[in-house]
Amino acid sequence: MSDTQDTTQAAQQPDDHATYHRLVALLDAQGADYRIVEHAPEGATELVSELRGNALAQAAKCIVVMVKVGKKTTRYVLAVVPGDRRVDLGAVKALLSGTYVSFASRDIAERLAGSVSGTVLPFSFDERLELVVDPGLLEHDTLYFNAARLDRSLALSAKDYVRIAAPRIEAVAL
């Protein structure tokens, strides 16, 4: 392959690691206690937790939820729960006084999260995405999550996570 072909192919591929770099820059700027964990590409919480060697309860499972509030207003929540639990859609609906709740469509979730499914961060870089974290996840000193990449995760101090992400902490897990 010529240099011209390499350049053309690179130009056609978006920077799919932009959200990863944004997160690392934020954590560095805030002096966060974290470490990068490289592993085989995997997005399923149970499987990636095995690769990283963390307890499933320490994994931040991140789900984008759509909540209808009245007939004309739609809000989106990034619900973050321990990896061994599920998002309680009813609790998210009640939290926002919603009339209807469901998982956001994949394309909307990925657009708001800035990364593909299986790599959604427990941080929101989009003002339309409200961050809500279940307190069960914060019972551990360290939390683990895919860092907007299938092949790389972060182990982050829970205290630094709360300080930097400033999530709304509410019971949203089953």
Features:
5-stranded mixed β-sheet, alpha/beta, 8 strands, single chain, globular
Describe this structure in words.
- By secondary structure, the chain is an alpha/beta fold.
- The protein contains six helices and eight strands, in the order H-H-E-H-E-E-H-E-H-E-E-E-H-E.
- The protein has helices at residues 3-12, 18-29, 45-52, 89-95, 106-113, 158-165, and strands spanning 34-38, 60-69, 73-82, 100-103, 129-133, 142-146, 152-157, 168-169.
- The strands form two sheets. It has a five-stranded mixed β-sheet with strand order 4-2-3-5-8. It has a three-stranded antiparallel β-sheet with strand order 1-7-6.
- Strand 2 and strand 3 form a beta hairpin.
- The radius of gyration is 17 Å and the shape is globular.
